[in-house]
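Narrative of activities, Objective 1.

The group set out to show that a structural description can be obtained from nothing but a protein's sequence at a throughput compatible with the screening campaign. Below is one input-output pair from the validation batch, recorded exactly as produced.
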Amino acid sequence: MVALCDRFLGREISLRALVDGLEGLLNAGSFDDQSLRKRWYELWTPLEVRNAMGEADWSLGAKEETEALRSFLREVQE
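Output recorded for this entry:
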């Protein structure tokens, strides 16, 4: 997931690819910790809303939201 965030921040993938990829990875994994899932969704949902509203592939808001999600994911990995 961190790699997807990095790719989006580097403008290598679209917002749609980021949102879809992150959701797919969450669903493919076995994340039973409900507090982790809740926080993940809190950080992912704004990106999903941007995507659903047809926002351009990259914006300052999407960048900031992606950085926040990436920071959370890095904390979880430690």
